[in-house]
Amino acid sequence: MAQFQNTILFANEQDQKDELKNYRNQFYFPQHNNEPVVYFTGNSLGLQPKQTKSYIEQELNDWAKFGVEGHFLAKNPWMPYHELLTDKMAKIVGALPSEVIMMNQLTVNLHLLMVSFYQPTKQRYKILCEAKAFPSDQYALQSQLNFHGFNSDDALIEVAPREGEYHIRIEDILTEIEKNKDSIALILIGGVNYFSGQVFDMKSITNAGHKAGAIVGFDLAHAAGNIKLELHNWGVDFAAWCSYKYLNSGPGSVAGAFIHEKHHQNTNLPLFAGWWGHDKKTRFLMDKKFIPMQNAERWQLSNAPILSMAACLSSLSIFDEVGMDKLILKSNQLTAYLEYIVNEINKEKNNCLQIITPIENRGCQISIVANGYGKDLYNNLIENGVIPDWREPNVIRCAPVPLYNNFTDIYRFGAVLSKIL
Ligand SMILES: *Cc1c(COP(=O)(O)O)cnc(C)c1O
Q1: Cβ of 137 less than 6 Å from ligand 1
Q2: Which residue CA neighbors atom 10 of ligand 1 most closely?
Q3: Residue 198 burial (CB count, 10 A)
Q4: One fold for both 8-36+323-420 and 57-322?
């Protein structure tokens, strides 16, 4: 990339050259003074693809037309509807199609997967996670420990940043794994930390975890659709993610789960079962005995939520067309430009801003500490047509998303920030 410049001309030029520039037009942007806002919260709720309405309408129409027979007669029959999502989703997370299933919600999936993959014994019962994990993950881990009769003071190993640092050193995670190698049962870490934007070296953590005799899972809420993932090749045991952040599938939309192929034949794994995990060929014989699917679909309980899956299918079709490699390429450029702009503003403003996201381990998100500023700063940004995300006490999270954000958004963000600081 050429030398960056903090000018509207430079930003416009980069946008002209951008091979993916037209995808922006496929999304609805909230408006501010009749202009699209600078939307930097795709890490919280991705924007709506314009085509999503027609995907959902298709299913509403087929429901109106066919009633229950839509399971077989709909244009996309509902019975196997979830299968339409599998290949596209598997490509995004670097999995085999047999390893991926879209179902439920994220926290629900974490629990269901821990039912199978957190099997503590008296000796081996500890869970390792990152300190200040997303609250829902903390609650899930604590309640799993309690459910098995352990308590988190003793059984939860939380690896924290060192004094005065903002992100967690990988060597500290590996050391902690090694130190607890006789007692650790499960490692469950957010692949990308939601607060700092730090990307963890999932391959090394997986290797270290396995060497210590632990199962390794990841919460990919902030990773899926954001960074390059190779869940299969890394040998990750299981993972779960939501589809409403980078995957643009709408509020509370259907979530994803990954179960590595190496576990598919193991019928001894504990499972909370439902009829949609039963072998397809004989599912409707409605027999008493549960015959499990030999792939990730075994973990399905219920029949699929078609309307939210339609929104998900709409979005995944766009990802499928572009491909993660091109998205990541653009993402790296956008985020580098954002970093540059923040640094430029910082020079004018006595270094009041501090980027706490590690440059060498990040996706598209940059988290910025605004020293000496409170929530007023965030409110001011909103009033000026910029939507970032605010985390107490003074962190702004900005996620320029390669599918629909551009260089001009970043320039505009910089101009507004510079004005109000
Ligand atoms: C967004 C997010 C969640 C949200 O969980 P839901 O079950 O979808 O409400 C959980 N964990 C992490 C790490 C997240 O980023």
Answers
A1: yes
A2: 136
A3: 25
A4: no
**What architecture is the 57-322 domain classified under in CATH?**
3-Layer(aba) Sandwich (3.40)
Does domain 8-36+323-420 correspond to CATH entry 3.90.1150.10?
Answer: yes
pLDDT band at 2 (very low <50, low <70, confident <90, very high): low
Pocket lining: 222 vs ligand 1, CB cutoff 6 Å = yes
Ligand 1: centre distance to CA 132 (Å): 13
Where do the structural domains in the chain lie, given as residue ranges?
A: 8-36+323-420, 57-322
Ligand 1 pocket check: which of 136, 218, 219 to mutate, most ligand atoms within 8 Å of Cβ?
Answer: 136
249 lines ligand 1 (CB under 6 A): no
Strand partners, 122: none
71 CA from centroid of ligand 1 (Å): 30
Residue 54's alpha-carbon distances to 29, 30, 31, 296, in angstroms, are 18, 20, 22, 29
Q: Are 125 and 163 in contact (CB under 8 A)?
A: no
Residue in 186, 182, 212 with CA at minimum distance from that of residue 120: 186
Strand pairing class (366-370; 238-241): unpaired
State whether the beta carbon of 134 lies less than 6 angstroms from ligand 1. Answer: yes
Partners of 41 in beta bridges: 399
Residue 300 to residue 273: CA distance in whole angstroms: 8
Indicate if ligand 1 lies below 6 Å from the C-beta of 44. Answer: no
Express each pLDDT in 255-301 by its tens digit. 999 999 999 999 899 999 999 999 988 888 888 899 999 999 999 99
Spatial neighbors of 132 by CB under 8 A, at least 6 apart, are: 158, 160, 195
Cα(65) to centroid(ligand 1), Å: 36
- Cβ 233 vs Cβ 94: under 8 Å: yes
Pocket test for ligand 1, best of 113, 130, 137 (most atoms within 8 A of CB): 137
Sign of CA dihedral 316, 318, 322, 326: negative
Q: What is the pLDDT of residues 329-357, one digit of tens each?
A: 999 999 999 999 999 999 999 899 999 99
Of 134, 141, 222, 253, the one to substitute when testing ligand 1's pocket (max ligand atoms within 8 A of C-beta) is 134
| pLDDT at 26 exceeding the cut of 70 | yes
b/e string for 213-251 if b means 16 or more Cβ within 10 A? ebbbbbbbbbbbbbbebebbebbbbbbbbbbbbbbbbbe
- Measure 170 CA to ligand 1 centroid, in angstroms: 23
